[in-house]
Design a protein that fits this description.
The protein is mainly beta. The protein is built from 4 helices and 19 strands. The two termini are about 25 Å apart.
Length: about 300
């Protein structure tokens, strides 16, 4: 218990602040829009912000529409830079027009950020509860990947070993998200730290009626005449959305928080995954920041 309290005291001393939520906006660096975002910092039943210990939970309400996905990240506190999150695509919040309800834990994974060399979970001297200062461990290779793909002979949990994620739809597009720390039932009991979450809006599934494909609305000069293509549209790079990349000839989605197999973006996920501090990442995404030390502020 003492090490858990020291962990969060370290975050407080660093001047970290926490966000509630932010409606609208976009991450200009990644050119991805999101409709709702925030940081869940106060565990269920607690009076102030802190880590959710084994058996504890975070809970927050999001607002979503058809086509939206949920992305989040929380640190496994007894690790060097391990975090729990969905993949690049996030968790779909609607299915066939109806909001998704129930357990979605099978869509959550245990990731390695690659910014710090790993030690056995719960034992390393450079892990947050034991290190003498933030960001002091030996550097890793800098590539974000599933911890299970590291091949470093260490043992790692799956995402569903550590957390259970449940969606409960409400009225007017509201969905309650609950993230339970179930690591007390695993080989890796550990706190999880405040959760940064984003509801990503996918414009191709959210088009207004006046943007729908309609042959009658196509201009004559856009009817398939290759000679009318502007020169500035001739580059291959302009033929793909900004959130898509080429990987060995295959299309892959670039995530709003990270992309598997690619270096960390440097937007603040390192602060979260190494030290449990979501404030830098939240600020990068334009989430309104204010002190959330008391449960009454939720």
């Amino acid at each position: 218990m003492r090490t858990y309290l020291l962990l969060f005291a370290l975050l407080l001393c660093s001047g970290a602040v926490f966000a509630d939520s932010h409606d609208g906006g976009s991450d200009d660096g990644m050119m991805m829009a999101f409709s709702d975002a925030g940081v869940a910092a106060v565990p269920v039943g607690a009076d102030a912000a802190g880590p959710a210990l084994p058996g504890g939970a975070y809970e927050f309400v999001i607002h979503a529409h058809e086509g939206d996905t949920l992305t989040f990240a929380t640190m496994l506190a007894q690790s060097n830079d391990g975090f729990l999150a969905p993949n690049e695509y996030g968790i779909a919040l609607y299915d066939m027009g109806a909001p998704v309800s129930g357990d979605v834990s099978d869509q959550v994974y245990y990731w390695d950020l690659g910014t710090e060399r790993n030690e056995p979970i719960g034992e390393g001297m450079f892990q947050a509860p034991r290190q003498f200062a933030p960001n002091t461990g030996p550097a890793g290779d800098g590539i974000v990947r599933l911890a299970s793909d590291l091949g470093d002979r260490l043992s790692y949990p799956s995402g569903s070993d550590i957390i259970a994620v449940t969606l409960t739809p409400g009225d007017m597009g509201a969905i309650t998200v609950r993230i339970d720390n179930i690591s007390d039932m695993s080989m890796y009991p550990s706190p999880i730290t405040p959760v940064l979450w984003i509801v990503e809006t996918h414009a191709d599934m959210m088009m207004d009626d006046d943007m729908m494909h309609d042959d009658e609305m196509m201009d004559d000069d856009m009817a398939g005449d290759d000679e009318m293509m502007d020169d500035d549209m001739s580059d291959d790079d302009m033929m793909h959305d900004d959130d898509m990349m080429m990987d060995d000839g295959m299309m892959m989605k670039q995530g709003i928080l990270f992309t598997s197999g690619m270096p960390d973006y440097g937007h603040g996920l390192e602060n979260l995954a190494e030290d449990g501090d979501p404030s830098v990442l939240a600020a990068h995404h334009g989430i309104d920041m204010h002190d959330m030390m008391m449960d009454d502020d939720m």
